What does this fold into?
Amino acid sequence: MTNYFFKPSPFLAPFVEYYFVIEEFSATPESGSAESVKVFPSPQCEMVFSYADPVRERWFDQSLAPSPGFAIGGYATKPVEYLPEGAGGVIMVGFKPWGIQCFLDFEVKEIMNANSDMSLHYGREVLFVEEKLREAGSVVERIRIVEAFLAGKIRRHRADPAMVHAVELIAQSCGTLPVEQLARRCFISRRQFLRRFEAGIGIPPKTYSRIVRFQQVFSKMDGEEAAPDWGTIAYEAGYFDQAHFINDFREFSGYSPEQFQKGISRSPVGRFFDENVQPKAAYGKIYL
It folds into this structure.
């Protein structure tokens, strides 16, 4: 399996955080050698561009189902696992928290915990892009194809500046600022703040803050020894008590903290992603 990590062009940088590529062309449906990829909730949305064999997806506590090869992924509050049926080739476009809404003619909150088939929103052009990706001779050429597609799909060239500021405040506080304080620091009413945040970001601010706080836990766990002090970790990550910490961790990851610490090892995909993201990125560890 080969992984790549690219930054967007200056034109798309206000909206896009990164392009993450996973390729495994040696696997076949008969060999069963393709590796699954598990994804945790994070404070961002992605678009997926696949140019290899079909993939199935399994959301937490649900059965396997076909996954759209070209998909718009909404915010998630539960883990999802992707299982390639053979060769793998996929580009994940990771958007800034406000970024994906600028490319959509519907509200991203409508597809929470779901991957929506891109052809439903962009029509037959998606088939043309897929053909070009399959014919491309290099990963760099594929990134250019995806960037050209995205550049033609921008609906709004500027996100709501107040909501961008709110996202920055949430990241700086590690998800601990109450909604009332966020609204006050954005100089708008609480009711207006809730409406604008969900419209501009695609998720309620309280849920967004919970996901940011959950992502902080991983960095705290990384610094612990074999027997971590869960009370200290919960406090440092911004939780009021250990019970809320355990409930959130189980909901968002599918594991208890003890199960994750003792029995779960990070995949090469997850470790590669961690090595390439910004050290203080709010989205932390997305890939197991």
Notes: The longest helix spans residues 205-222. The longest strand covers residues 16-24. The radius of gyration is 19 Å. The mean pLDDT is 89.
